[in-house]
Amino acid sequence: MAVQPSFFILLLSLLAVTGNVLSEYTTSLYLSPKTISSNYDKMLQSFKIFVYPPPPSTETPLFTTRQESHFYTSLLHSPFVTEDPSQAHLFFVPFPNSISTRNLARLIRNIRTNFPFWNRTLGADHFYLSAAGVDYSSDRNVVELKKNSIQISCFPTSSGLFIPHKDVTLPPVHSFQATPSVNVTPAFLGYMKLTDQIPYSLISEINDHPDFKVEHEPANTKAKLKFTKSSRFCLFVYGSDMTWMVEAMALRCVPVVITDRPIQDLPLMDVIDWSEMAVFVSSRGGAKGLKRVLDGIEKSRYERMMESGVAAAQHLGWNAEAQAHDAFHMVVYQLWLRRHTIRYARWVEQ
Ligand SMILES: *[C@@H]1O[C@H](CO)[C@@H](O)[C@H](O)[C@H]1NC(C)=O
Predict the structure, then answer these.
(1) For 47-68, what is each residue's pLDDT tens digit?
(2) How far apart are CA 145 and CA 134, in angstroms?
(3) 16, 70, 102, 209: which could form a disulfide with 287 (CB 3.0–4.6 Å)?
(4) Which residue has better confidence, 105 or 182?
């Protein structure tokens, strides 16, 4: 019996697809492990973003943080940008970090009157970069921007200017290498590096506990590297310095975030499953309670968290030139997930 050649081709392509999915997306790292791979590919094929011209005579560079600059430059050099707004899924409004509320209102008013796109969704298919977040204002233009458009800020957003259902954060920039696994017996259960004084009795309790190592800045990089590698967990106080959390993950130190309220601004929060790679504990149990929680994590679970952390660190890391699945592409992926908005065919003034 002759076997149809097309059958083989189908089989081969099925194998190829499965192989790709398995190699990259097997861990429980993702919130939607079944769809992320195909959805990401769809994004690469079809996502289009229209970029408005920056306001005239603004200083350069537009953005003052490294992660914003990385995002902006990568976006402008990416194939996602289109010159044809009729093809665009989303619209990017660039303005400098230093813009005044008045000038921001004027910028949005100009966009509203000179282009037909703002009125269709009142800004819901628009996004902007603002390191600290745009402040609340009574100006109608700024209100619509703040309430409807997607805000991209820098993690952590301490200011309360973050709206969880739509806004996203950029992970901090690091220069580190993921380390291969080595079999060392960790000297400490947890390591904490403090850059600022936190009025927290828990800190001094942790400081006095022999299983934990607390270091105050200025800590030199070598010491930090040594303690990170020789500790099972790296401790962070939410609201304090969280910027090296991704670095800790890449160095195989499982992050522990001490927080008494839910955190809503973690980077890639609707893509990766943070509970699979970080431990969130309240401060109420003190150092003893903290130790009990950490000791209660089984070895197999701990190792899975460590591996997930190393894998997630790839998604949370920036590259001078954007690479597949890196921080730039994953933040764009979050935008892609937010592209569905209702567009009114015609704006009717009420
Ligand atoms: C958008 O709506 C406003 C009224 O809210 C109107 O003044 C403006 O001209 C409209 N823009 C366009 C491009 O039609």
Answers:
(1) 999 999 988 766 678 899 999 9
(2) 9
(3) 209
(4) 105
Domains assigned to the chain: 36-173 (no CATH), 188-316 (3.40.50.2000)
- Provide the whole-model pTM: 0.87
Hey, whose CA ends up nearest to atom 10 of ligand 1?
A: 113
Integer-rounded Cα Rg, in Å, for the chain is 23
CA 53 – ligand 1 centroid, Å = 19
- Minimum-distance ligand 1 atom for the alpha carbon of 115: 13
- Distance of alpha carbon 224 from alpha carbon 226, whole angstroms: 5
Contact partners, residue 335, CB within 8 Å, separation at least 6: 47, 49, 90, 127, 150, 168
